[in-house]
Amino acid sequence: MTNMENILEVKNLKKNFATQKAVDNVSFDISRGSVFGMLGPNGAGKTTLLRMITGIFYPDDGTILFEGKKFDPLNDIVRIGYMPEERGLYKKMKIGEQALYLARLKGLSKSEAMDKIRYWFERMEMQSWWNKKVQDLSKGMSQKLQFVTTILHEPSLVILDEPFSGLDPVNANLIKDEIFNLAKKGSTIIFSTHRMEQVEEICDHIILINKGEKILDGSVKRVKQDFKENLFQVGFERKPDTLPDNTVFETVGTRGEHFVLKIREGYKPHDVLQYLIAQSHEVISFNEMLPSLNDIFIKLVEGTPLARQFQYIEKA
To answer: For 110-125, what is each residue's pLDDT tens digit?
Structure first.
C-alpha cells in the first residue's frame, strides 16, 4: 500500500553488472519535504541507486513508486532535478546559453527560463559568467553552474550526488544554505556522499549503503542515540592526574583537559556525578559524547567501538 506522505518508495531494488551485485535488495521510503542522506564509501552502490531512481538504469528486480505511482521515467523526469557526480555540461557552450537550453529541455518557456536564470545567477553570484565557456571555469564554478541548472525548473525531487566536491568552504556553505531553502519551500532532497561528516547538520533521515546493501536506515537523531556507547566527557576545576578504578565508570582516555568516561552497565550519569562529588572533585562540565555518522559506519563495517579512539591517548 502506498503512503502518500512519501514522495518516493523504493522496494527490493536489485542491479547486477556481470558478476557484481551493485545493488542488492535495497528498500527505503523518502518523506515529502525531507532532506534524505544516502551515505556510503566510494563504490558502495549509491550512484547506481540514483541512476535507477532517475530512469538512467532499469532495475533487474524491484519497484520504484514516485508520488504514489509506479515511476515512469519519460513523464516523471520533468519533476526531478538530478546533479550527477560526473558533471554533464557542454564544455564549449557559453554558460548563459547552456542554462537556457537545459531549462527549456525541462519544459520552461524562454521567458520563464530567463527570469529564473537571472534570479539564480544573481543569487549564486554568477552574473558576470554569462558569456564564459564551461571549459574556462574552475571545478568549483562548474559545480555552482550544475547546481543552478539542476534546480531551475523547481523540481519536487532534487537529487544531488557529491554536490560539495571541489567547492571551497564559502561556496559549500552557499549551496548548503540553498539546500535548506529548497526543503523549506517543499522540495525533497536526496543528498548522496561518501563524506559522512557533511550530512550531520543537513539530513533528517539517512540510509547507509555498503557493498550494494543497506546496512542502516533511520533519522539522524535516532541513529546517533541507538549507537551511543555511554561515553561522557568530564572537565574539572583542577584536573586530577588519574581517576581510580571503581564500579561506576571506566576511564577510557583523555581529550585535551577532559577525561573520557564510559559508564558501566547498571549505572546512570547521575551516579557518575555523585561518585565524583563524593570524591571531592569539582566538576565544571559533563557532556555526553554521541557518535558521529562516520564513527557509526566504522563500527558497522569494521567492528571498531567508539571508545577505542580514546584508549591510548594518555600514553601518546
So the answer is: 999 999 999 999 998 8
CATH of domain 6-225: 3.40.50.300
How confident is the model over 261-290, as pLDDT tens digits?
999 999 999 999 999 999 999 999 999 998
> Kind of pairing, strands 188-193 and 231-236?
unpaired
Look at phi and psi of residue 50 and say left if phi exceeds 0, alpha if psi is from -120 to 50, else beta: alpha
Q: Which long-range contacts does 174-179 make (Cβ < 8 Å, 24+ apart)?
A: 174/124, 174/125, 174/144, 175/143, 175/144, 175/147, 176/202, 178/123, 178/124, 178/147, 178/151, 179/35
- Return the C-alpha cell found at 297: 559506519
Provide the residue ranges of all domains of the chain, joining segments of one domain with +.
6-225, 227-310
Return the top range by mean pLDDT from 143-147, 163-167, 258-262, 296-300: 258-262
Q: Is the dihedral of CA 91, 92, 97, 101 positive or negative?
A: negative
* 157-161 vs 188-193, strand pairing mode: parallel
The residue assigned the cell 534524505 is: 36
